[in-house]
Write a structure and sequence with these properties.
The structure is a single chain. By secondary structure, the chain is mainly alpha-helical. Helix 1 packs across helix 2, helix 4 crosses helix 5 and helix 4 crosses helix 6. The longest helix is centred in the N-terminal third of the chain and has 28 residues. It is elongated, with a radius of gyration of 27 Å. 9% of the residues are buried.
């Protein structure tokens, strides 16, 4: 399946000027860092003659009219197309996997326990070990719950990364069969965890 792409919006007059002059300006000011260089571009653009700015603006206006026509034709040809909003990714089937669901559940359990402090990287290694110890049917159930979560439109929000160490218990993979109801919610270790307290 090929991805449908909308016509690309034209660059505004400042971006056109920048694209045309960036390399030359970079040669004149090689010592500037990215932020300083961007400021320098803005400063130089502000000082170009009005006639030059108007020519870039005229090019933009012409290309914008052409783009609007192309976009109208594109929308008619692709009525189901939904453009991605700036700064937000369109959710896809890969947003939540069975492993991601399992990882989230295990990480929360580790943060609740306060026996031993380890880094997030070490916690990840331990969770991966647990995941690899699961049977095919257990993994399949996590995948099914993740797919159902996506299809129902309930995609969990990302948590802000924690700067503190994660509290965990010593992890030994369990090979015992898991009940279906507890497996569905990622709680296959909860009964053994609670009894050890």
């Amino acid at each position: 399946m090929t991805e449908v792409r909308a016509p690309k919006r034209p660059l505004n007059s400042y971006m056109r000027w920048t694209a045309k002059n960036r390399a030359d300006i970079k040669k004149k000011f090689p010592q500037l860092r990215a932020k300083e260089f961007t400021s320098k571009l803005g400063e130089l653009y502000a000082n170009i003659p009005a006639v030059e700015k108007e020519s870039y603006a005229a090019e933009y206006k012409k290309d914008m009219e052409k783009w609007k026509k192309e976009m109208d034709a594109f929308k008619k040809a692709n009525p189901d197309f939904v453009p991605a909003k700036k700064g937000k990714k369109v959710p896809s089937a890969s947003v939540l996997t069975g492993f991601a669901l399992f990882y989230g559940c295990e990480l929360v359990k580790m943060e609740v326990k306060e026996e031993k402090t380890i880094s997030k990287g070490t916690a990840m290694k331990k969770i991966v070990k647990k995941w690899n110890a699961l049977s095919e049917s257990q993994i399949k159930k996590y995948d099914e719950v993740a797919k159902r979560t996506i299809s129902e439109g309930v995609i969990p929000k990302k948590r802000a990364p924690s700067k503190k160490k994660v509290e965990v218990e010593k992890v030994e993979p369990e090979e015992k069969p898991v009940e279906e109801s507890s497996q569905e919610y990622g709680e296959e270790y909860s009964s053994s965890d609670e009894s050890s307290d």
